[in-house]
């Protein structure tokens, strides 16, 4: 059970670090007071990670439920073209 908790902790740590690096690059984020930046990261980080995980779960479900034709590779390609810095969470970055 310890390995499971350690794995989850490591994944969250990586996601939080990537998210922090991403938002620091946003000009709107840099323009607000540092206390507000900390609050946004502190209280919004898990929400962003959760929302991102929903998108990835839907992606997997959609691809798995598509008949085995040319559509799954096409769907993969469309999802891969989706802009965003979070592709690294699913091994795309």
From TrEMBL:
Recorded hits in SUPFAM superfamilies, A to Z, give: Nuclear receptor ligand-binding domain
Q: Could you tell me which InterPro entries the record lists for this protein?
A: NHR-like_dom_sf, Nucl_hrmn_rcpt_lig-bd
Q: Which residues form the NR LBD domain?
A: 1-93
The membrane spanning regions, by residue number, are none
Keywords of this protein's UniProt record, alphabetized? Answer: Receptor, Transcription, Transcription regulation
| PROSITE patterns assigned to the protein according to its UniProt record, in alphabetical order | NR_LBD (PS51843)
**Statement: the UniProt record of this protein carries the keyword DNA repair:** no
Query: Can you name this protein?
Result: NR LBD domain-containing protein
Per the UniProt record, the source organism is Oppiella nova
Which lineage ranks, top first, belong to the organism behind this chain?
Answer: Eukaryota, Metazoa, Ecdysozoa, Arthropoda, Chelicerata
